[in-house]
Amino acid sequence: MKKLATFLSAVLAGAAISIGGAVFLCTDSRPAGAALFSVGLFAVCTLGLDLFTGKVCYIFDNPPAYAARCGLIWLGNLGGTLIMGTALRLTRLDVISKAQGICEAKLSDSIISIFILAVFCNILIYLSVESYRSSPHELGKYLGLFLGVAVFVQAGFEHCVANMFYFTAAGAWSGKTVLYLLVMTLGNALGGVIFPLAKKFRARAEG
After folding, report:
1. Which residues of the chain have pLDDT under 70?
2. Which pTM value belongs to this model?
3. Alpha-carbon gap, residue 161 to 179, rounded angstroms
4. What is the CATH number of domain 2-206?
């Protein structure tokens, strides 16, 4: 039952990020769309949902079984984005053509570029999530969420769960898409642990 609850929570997290992705696609101004995309992570953190890019940041703070949990969360996030992306393709919203343009740019990029951009993305996601978890001030909690997400979207960094939604909305799934998604996932995982590991190293050095 615990695994099922985690999976369902991850599905909802994928749906939340999809809503952020949808509003980004429907907003003509990129800066405004980047800002509004933050509603996805806001929902995840406020409702306590399971999002891979946030959870993977704490993989070294947990026992080995936590890595398997992160894998389950990734699959749940994929399920949520598949549902939302497929559903939105059936509506009047102009998401298909815009998603196709975004996905074409991503899939024509090099593997190394995709990986680096994914690393950068999750450095910001870690800062966002850690701000929400640790800031003693309510304003700081939400400002951290907003800034981290708005910056990574505006910069064009690669978020594997958001891209699950874009690939689905665009109808762009293929073997190459899966490969690129796995590269994004690895990049997000690495980016998410850089600052936590640096903090551990500094704490040991000072201790």
Report:
1. 207
2. 0.95
3. 14
4. 1.20.1080.10
